Amino acid sequence: MPIERKLAAIMFTDIVGFTKIMGDDESTALSILENQQSLINPIIKEHKGTIIKKMGDGLLIEFQSTVESVECATQMQDSIKSYNTSDDNLEFHIRIGIHLGDVVILGDDILGDGVNIASRIEPLAHPDGICITEAVYQSVKSKLKLDAKRIDEVDLKHIDDKYTIYKLPKQSDEIVDSKDDNEIDNLFHNNRVIIESVTDITSNNAKAYFTVFIIMLLSYYIGMGIFLRIVYLLEGKILEGISDYLVFLVIIPLVLAVPLAAIFSRKKYKINCVDIRNIPFLLDILILEMGYKVVKQSGRRIEYIHKPKIDFLINFLKDAKYYPKFLRILDTFVVTFDGNTIEIVGFQFHVKKVIRKIKKRNVQ
């Protein structure tokens, strides 16, 4: 049987928080599904879209035109927003993802990368928003007026290549510069920060650990050399018996160096997030809550230093011009944002602390 392929604009839709709605009240969830169908089905038909599959609260829709797909998505969101303005209606919100790609026709179903990519970018849209790929944007930009925010190099789950995406409307992604505690709390609860994976990507863990281990041992032996000379001058003797030598020159340095090397070894972690709305702002709040301050920022790269409020003297020294560089490095780490990927680089005790905090505030 010959395989039939074609180029198509593929749309995925999803109702925000539908699983929770279904768990709380099944009748309400079913009513929302009916209301969604009555609102958007006529719009899909008007724009010559074909509903290929219904997946619970989501839809897989095919369009022959990218312009029709984007216009349809915009009209769908406008219709739902208008519907939600009435207090008598059951409020709901949807996300929409659109990709232009090659699909395989299999009976009444469609398969292929075009479908997979559309399904991966849909969760990256904000509620009431639309997410489109570069292919869709380039196809419609001269025909439609788009208020879109561009995000480069986005990792998509189980997709090898990175993609540039555009989020519509742009203003819904703008970060407010200052917010009070209640607003910040609402941001955490109303915006998803769903972590898909946390991966240790340190290039050579053994080398990083061993380097710090050797430094710790050398520091100990240099310090002990000074200490033993003082003892010799004061007491006229250094150590007595083989057991003393074993304790001071083998056991104690190993007991100290092994855990300290683990704590101070330099690590690099990669965090993939499903939803990237306001990630820089939300992560910044978390880090600032932990007593870290921004040292410098360049584009998507931010360097932080640990400066707890209670340590006034230490903080004063850290601000001093001649604060030793090696001590400053011990207290800093770097965060880099790249699409929906966050990389954190620094000594393990800082990096692990930040990751634990992020996971604790991870909203499912």
State the helical fraction.
Answer: 40-55%
Q: Ends: how far apart? A: 43 Å
CATH class of the largest domain: Alpha Beta
Order of helices and strands: EHHEEHEEHEHEEHEHHEHEEHHEEH
Uncertain regions spanning at least 5 consecutive residues: 173-192
Helix segment tally: 12
Return the CATH architecture of the largest domain: 2-Layer Sandwich
The secondary structure category is alpha+beta
| Share of β-strand residues | 25-35%
What would you give as the CATH superfamily of the largest domain? Nucleotide cyclase, GGDEF domain
- The total beta strand count reads 14
Task: Give the quaternary arrangement of the chains.
Answer: single chain
Largest sheet: 8 strands, mixed
Average residue pLDDT: 76
**Rg from Cα:** 28 Å
The backbone outline, from C-alpha atoms, is elongated
* CATH T-level topology of the largest domain: Alpha-Beta Plaits
Compute the number of structural domains. Answer: 3
Layout: helices, strands, pairs:
Blueprint: E1 4-15, H1 18-24, H2 26-46, E2 50-55, E3 58-63, H3 66-84, E4 94-106, E5 109-111, H4 113-121, E6 130-133, H5 134-140, E7 149-154, E8 163-168, H6 181-190, E9 195-200, H7 205-235, H8 241-264, E10 266-273, H9 279-289, E11 292-298, E12 301-306, H10 312-319, H11 325-330, E13 332-338, E14 341-347, H12 348-360
Parallel strand pairs: 4-6
Antiparallel strand pairs: 1-3, 1-4, 2-3, 4-5, 6-8, 7-8, 9-10, 10-14, 11-12, 12-13, 13-14
Helix pairs in contact: 1-2, 2-3, 7-8
Could you describe the 3D structure shown?
This protein has 12 helices and 14 strands. About 5% of the residues have low confidence. It has 3 domains: 171 residues, Alpha-Beta Plaits; 60 residues; 94 residues, Alpha-D-Glucose-1,6-Bisphosphate, Chain A, domain 4 (2-Layer Sandwich), CATH 3.30.530. The chain is of the alpha+beta class. The two termini are 43 Å apart. Helix content is 46%, strand content 27%. Helix 1 runs antiparallel to helix 2.
